[in-house]
Design brief:
474 residues, alpha+beta, five-stranded antiparallel sheet, 14 helices, globular
């Protein structure tokens, strides 16, 4: 039996700490059954840049902490990362600068929003650099939300069917190839640096093709599409996943381009152009009604040949989106910017201590700071949390929780993976990260692959009479 003192410690009115935590979670969830990103409905972007000062490459790690950026150390896995007021994260990936946009929900105009936001973040970073310094595009990584249970199978399927078309739409003649990585709650695809309309084309194709893979894995019809291709996959030595080199299809895809002869799993031969068309036909069907028609038409033009492939373009200068579309105010992306700031409400103050794609954690205290607690919100519910916070709908649950004495409720890996809640204590933040698969050993390194690609690039440049680009990604 509980003593009167014990009961008094745990109750405000007739409610306990557990009650107010569950109430908080229900208010944030707002009817959502599972706090997971909807598969194929959220896209993210990471752009890597080389920093050059008077044409000499500078290690961005030597500069990043002197730029006066946003909140540091909100990602336990990356002590170089700063979360900006825009919601984007800026970090140093080895020697390169990396800008990771906040996730964007898929809706009309999403492709253009991705491209314009990426350009704005690049310009903002460039304005902070020392005199004489500039940025040069290095790589592009696109991520689309996927169900964790199917991410590995999706990555293998994607590499054997959609890798070649995406490489044609994204990479230049100097590119090494494509990274295909199954992450905890998303599929990551890394290739050549692209921006402007080329970024829109790549992002739109990625969205549609990932949706096709997800549908197949759920038992849906394959539709009219080419079979899996013969492809030699190499293990990625930096993260769990695979590297599809430019010669993975028994020939150099970037040299032959659309005319490349590809072999499917049945031994039949199909041209890269025919495979590209059939893949885009299947992917496009999953985007009609969700994306703006002008975004789909950009891909149409490249697929049918009205616009050249990147490997056949004689200029590396990117074009800005030509169509004027209304600005999309994306609630998901905006929520990450709001979450990176401190907030003062009637009766309590709140500030972020962790902010990643999958999880947001805040410290919350009374105005007198005589009681401290922690708020945990899954990344997919962060937009709901921000909306309820501004409405004041969460005030009662949080202030009532703070009015109770702590009872050792600890936010740990298990509680962090389930739903939103309120806690008295916080486990080491690194334990709250969604576990990633360890990279498997490989008999070669990415540096050696890129080095080989550089030799091929020089040969190809002489053969084609074309230009070389930045080429290279991790």
């Amino acid at each position: 039996m509980q003593t009167a003192d014990h009961t008094a410690h745990r109750r405000v009115g007739s409610f306990t700490l557990d009650h107010w935590s569950r109430t908080f979670g229900a208010l944030v969830a707002s009817g959502e059954v599972r706090p997971s990103w909807p598969a194929g409905d959220v896209i993210g972007l990471e752009h890597e840049y080389r920093m050059l000062a008077y044409e000499r490459v500078v290690d961005f790690r030597s500069v990043i902490h002197r730029l006066g950026l946003g909140r540091p150390r909100l990602d336990p896995a990356d002590l170089n990362a700063y979360r900006l007021a825009s919601g984007a994260a800026l970090t140093a990936d080895e020697a390169e600068a990396e800008i990771a946009l906040a996730p964007i929900s898929v809706r009309s105009g999403a492709g253009r929003l991705l491209a314009t936001t990426a350009n704005a973040e690049r310009l903002a970073l460039a304005s902070r650099l020392p005199e004489g310094a500039r940025l040069e595009g290095y790589s592009t990584h696109l991520s689309v939300a996927a169900r964790p249970a199917s991410s590995v199978a999706m990555a293998r399927m994607y590499a054997s069917i959609f890798a070649a078309p995406l490489m044609l739409l994204m990479d230049s003649v100097s590119s090494p190839g494509l990274l295909v990585r199954p992450r905890a709650s998303r599929l990551e695809l890394g290739g050549e640096f692209v921006d402007g309309e080329r970024l829109i084309v790549a992002a739109v194709f990625v969205l549609g093709s990932v949706r096709v893979c997800q549908r197949w894995l759920e038992g849906g019809e394959r539709g009219d599409i080419a079979d899996r291709l013969y492809v030699e996959l190499e293990r990625d030595d930096q993260r769990y996943g695979w590297f599809v080199s430019r010669t993975a299809f028994a020939c150099d895809l970037y040299i032959s381009g659309r005319a490349t002869k590809l072999q499917n799993e049945r031994g039949s031969i199909i041209t890269a152009q025919a495979h590209l068309e059939r893949c885009w036909l299947a992917a496009r069907a999953f985007l009609v009604g969700d994306l703006d028609e002008s975004e789909l038409e950009l891909v149409d033009k490249v697929v049918v040949g009205s616009e050249p492939l990147p490997a056949r373009t004689t200029s590396v200068a990117e074009r800005s989106p030509s169509c004027v579309c209304p600005v999309v105010d994306d609630a998901v992306a905006r929520a990450f910017g709001v979450a990176a700031s401190s907030h003062s409400r009637a009766g309590y103050a709140l500030a972020p201590v962790m902010l990643t794609w999958d999880r947001a954690v805040f410290v919350v205290s009374t105005q007198r700071r005589d009681r401290v607690a922690f708020v945990s919100v899954p990344g997919p519910l962060l937009a709901n949390f921000v909306e309820r916070l501004y409405e004041g709908a969460l005030d009662e649950a949080i202030t009532a929780y703070l009015a109770l004495s702590p009872q050792g409720r600890r936010l740990g890996p298990q509680s962090a993976a389930t739903t939103s809640g309120l806690y008295d204590d916080l486990a080491p933040r690194a334990r709250l990260l969604v576990p990633e698969r360890a990279p498997r050993s490989a008999s070669w390194t990415r540096r050696r692959i890129i080095s080989a690609a550089t030799r091929r690039r020089r040969s190809a440049s002489r053969h084609e009479g074309g230009v070389t680009a930045s080429g290279g990604h991790r």
